[in-house]
Design a protein that fits this description.
elongated; 16 helices; eight-stranded mixed beta sheet; binds guanosine-5'-diphosphate; Rossmann fold; alpha/beta; binds magnesium ion; about 15% strand
């Protein structure tokens, strides 16, 4: 572990130097304001001191080419996962030989930090670092919400930089507010909100049982009741009889016509039949879309050449990696926005942010239960950040 002290006139400058010298993997061990120079307590210069550390392996990696970098990072990751080197052993490598008064102080601080690190003995938990205390709280929260490492880094850096520019304790205490501002910045270039009514056809795709049919019924009710639109249903989910009956029931309750399509010809005929409708909502069969064959099947029955909004429905109870795999399989279709379902069945919402970060698309709706039409919210930056910060 390489440890270094940085001093600068402002916190953002200090952080910039840390990043330049030690790379993005650097961990902030301590940060504080120090005063230098002056005369009888006057004209003292305010400086910001940051003590940062980096694993030499990671630092080396920071200096190597991006191609090499990928290989090395994964090597380091697998090593740390399987070797289970104890934190204590790791830290005993810290070797500081200078003995000036300043360095004694540094050693004392490092020893305090070492005992703190020992306390967090679970290797899967984030390393307990000396971010200002309120920011440590956010760090733990981000870990619990399973935010991606890049998002965690982005928010922690921004928060720390912002935190040090605030002067009043009241402002500093309101880390939620600072976090929310940073989240809004991240979400500002994404598109949110449900059906735009700019395209007649609206299509929901996604794995089995995520809530496509239920959500489509909620969307239909919203279009009819709140937007006074003339709505029709098409279902291409002929895989299970029960699926047709399920949508038929909603169609009857909402007094909406339904066409069942078994082939591309049926589909084309249905679109002509619904020519004078404002919105045509298309339900599809949930399949194991990790298998490419099922994606190809969709093209046998839906004409994706038509102007349509396509929503990918994902349940928030699913695993991040599976969500990513599914999205990638659908790249040939072109996804307009996500719909995230089952927000009521989990308390972890980081995957929403991670998916938006990775694929740079926004969210149409978030659904929060089985009740049609009530349990659905039109998504916005406010809705998403509230769900993450305040929970459901
Ligand atoms: N808890 C919860 N259940 C939901 C939600 N949306 C749908 N469901 C339930 O998930 C199950 C599968 O829904 P369905 O619409 O048939 O999924 P599909 O196979 O994707 O069409 C049903 O029992 C729904 O009531 C939601 O937001 N929260
Ligand atoms: Mg269904």
């Amino acid at each position: 572990m390489k440890i270094k002290k940085f001093t600068a006139g402002s916190m953002p400058d200090a952080m910039k130097t840390v990043r330049n010298e030690l790379g993005h993997e650097a961990v902030i061990l301590n940060s504080r304001i120090i005063y230098t120079g002056g005369f009888l307590g006057f004209f003292r210069k305010k400086n910001f001191e940051v003590i940062a550390a980096v694993d030499p392996k990671v630092e080396q990696d920071f200096k190597t080419s991006p191609k090499e970098k990928g290989k090395k990072v994964s090597a380091i990751r697998s090593e740390s996962r399987f070797e289970k080197k104890s934190i204590e052993e790791e830290n005993s490598n810290i070797n500081i030989s200078q003995s000036s008064k300043e360095n004694d102080l540094l050693i004392k601080e490092i020893n305090e930090l070492k005992s703190l690190i020992k306390l967090s003995n679970s290797e899967s938990k984030p390393l307990l670092t000396a971010y200002p205390e309120p920011i440590q709280g956010i760090q733990n929260w981000m870990y619990e919400q399973e935010l991606s490492p890049t998002l965690k880094n982005r928010f922690l850096t921004a928060l720390t930089e912002k935190w040090f520019t605030l002067s009043s304790n009241e402002e500093k205490g309101d880390t939620k507010k600072i976090l929310k501002e940073e989240m809004f910045k991240f979400l500002s270039d994404k598109h949110f909100g449900g059906v735009t009514f700019t395209k007649k056809f609206v299509n929901v795709l996604g794995p089995t049982g995520v809530g496509k049919t239920t959500t489509l019924a909620k969307i239909a009710a919203d279009c009819v009741l709140n937007h006074k639109k003339k709505v029709a249903f098409i279902t291409t989910d002929t895989y299970r009889i029960a699926a047709i009956d399920q949508l038929k029931t909603y169609a009857q309750i909402l007094n909406i016509p339904l066409e069942v399509c078994y082939s591309l010809e049926d589909f084309k005929a249905a679109t002509i039949k619904f020519n004078h409708y404002d919105v045509v909502l298309i339900d599809t069969a949930g399949r194991n879309f990790r298998n490419k064959k099922y994606i190809d099947d969709l093209f046998q029955v839906i004409d994706f050449e038509m102007e349509m909004e396509t929503f990918l429905v994902l349940a928030l109870t699913a695993k991040q990696k599976d969500m990513e795999d599914i999205f990638e399989q659908f790249s040939a279709v072109g996804i307009s926005k996500f719909i995230f379902t089952k927000a009521d069945e989990t308390s972890v919402y980081g995957s929403m942010m991670n998916m938006m970060e990775k694929f740079n698309i926004g969210v149409a709706y978030v659904t929060t239960g089985q009740n049609v039409p009530d349990d659905m919210i039109s998504a916005s930056s406010e809705v998403i950040s509230n769900l993450l910060i305040e929970g459901y």
